[in-house]
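User:
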Amino acid sequence: MPTPVITRAFLPIAVLTVALAVSACEPRTAQRGAMPDVDVIASIQPQKSTRADVERALGSPSSVNLFGEETWMYIGEETEQLAFLERNINERSVLIIHFNKDGIVEDVESHGLEQSRAVEPVERTTPTVGKKLTVIEQLMGNLNRFGKAGKKN
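Assistant: Predicted structure:
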């Protein structure tokens, strides 16, 4: 007896569905910012290295603080997310380089995930000028605006 057409078409669809389901369960990793290599950081020597040496070794900084002595910060983070679950931080790196007024490295600090703190944002709203429109008022205003689109002034 010949194999029904439905059975022949079902097998590739089933295989594709299982492959998509398995690939969706694989965690996605992402790296943001600068994660300098330990050997490169060790090559930056206080009292010897200059701004140009640091920029050549690490590239431009993520952030620059110009208040008082100049400070460069290289900030990076590696995260992992599984499907729709919350993102987990695997590694965080903050490299802080202080320069003196002559552009020579004064100090190099490195902070990791263990030194980080959770910051709770404050839930506030910023007042705005004008009146609050309902959804109906917004739709009616848009309809009125589109009605004038074809007319010339």
